[in-house]
Automatic annotation (TrEMBL):
Keyword NAD belongs to the record: no
Superkingdom assignment: Eukaryota
Keywords per UniProt: Immunoglobulin domain
Lineage: Eukaryota, Metazoa, Chordata, Craniata, Vertebrata
Protein name: Ig-like domain-containing protein
InterPro entries (alphabetical): Ig-like_dom (IPR007110), Ig-like_dom_sf (IPR036179), Ig-like_fold (IPR013783), Ig_I-set (IPR013098), Ig_sub (IPR003599), Ig_sub2 (IPR003598)
Pfam (any one): I-set
GO biological process, one term: homophilic cell adhesion via plasma membrane adhesion molecules
SUPFAM superfamilies per UniProt: Immunoglobulin (SSF48726)
Record-level GO cellular component terms: axon; plasma membrane
Length: 254
């Protein structure tokens, strides 16, 4: 390729100009495959509208004329931040495959909730897309997960065996790559035995505080006001000591 230089003029603020004789023909390649010329813009640059993952690869530009040719290449890497997949069927299918019959719950940015029986197992799914593939880390109440657990499916599933009150709190997964961060969460509710108190007009579910009171519970109907206070405090997750106090007033053994 021959370069011809113009003689500089003596006018202030002028420049040197360099041009090729004859003009070079530009050809673009992606992964060594020629790109149609209709994607080029007027100055020989390559325009890629609405870049997506499928556009990444090795791009090469070849400039050639009768004097020779030169080729320059660059690698295009498309980053896609962690985000929710358009469909959750894949995660649901993975949970069923990993643990058939095991209760499961899928996290979300706004938070989800799963009610479990004491001692049961659970699978927690963290569905996420992104490029490069996000790295997933699990947390409990904002700290790295330290309770007994297993991480499955490249980090997308957290398995807990024999759940207990130790797991009451927010469980979250943090998906991160070079393009961004996505946090999703869920919480577990551990349910014990329940007792039922009914009247002519209503049915109230009373979470068990002490199994020893079950056979005497209905004796408290004649103390309806105290019983109502006891029930509602329990349903509102008041401390056990408060409930025991009211049961003592009802003279029920605990």
């Amino acid at each position: 390729m021959k370069a011809t230089y113009l003689e500089p003029s003596y006018v202030e603020n002028t420049f040197y100009f360099i041009f090729c004789v004859p003009e070079a023909e530009l050809t673009w390649f992606r992964n060594k495959i020629k790109i149609p010329p209709d994607l080029h813009i007027h100055d020989g640059s390559l325009l890629i509208p609405n870049v997506s993952i499928s556009d990444q690869g090795l791009y090469s530009c070849r400039a050639a004329n009768i004097r020779g040719e030169v080729t320059e290449s660059t690698q295009l890497l498309v980053l896609d931040p962690p985000q929710l997949p358009h469909q959750f069927e894949d995660m649901a299918a993975t949970l069923s495959l990993v643990g058939p019959g095991i209760p499961s719950v899928i996290t979300s940015p706004s938070g989800t909730r799963k009610i479990l029986s004491q001692g049961s197992s659970v699978l927690i799914g963290c569905p996420v897309d992104g490029h490069p593939t996000p790295n997933i880390t699990w947390f409990y109440d904002g700290h790295p997960f330290h309770l007994p657990h297993q991480v499955l499916a490249s980090g997308q599933i957290l398995q807990i065996l024999n759940v207990s009150n130790d797991y009451l709190g927010e469980i979250s997964c943090r998906a991160q790559n070079e393009a961004g961060l996505l946090i999703q969460k869920t919480s577990l509710v551990i349910q014990g035995k329940t007792y039922f108190w009914s009247s002519l007009t209503q049915l109230v579910i009373f979470p068990c505080v002490s199994t020893s009171i079950s056979h005497r519970f209905f004796e408290a109907f004649k103390h309806s006001e105290l019983l109502d206070r006891c029930l509602w405090r329990t349903l509102e997750s008041q401390s056990v000591d408060v409930v025991h106090c009211y049961l003592w007033e009802l003279r029920l053994p605990i």
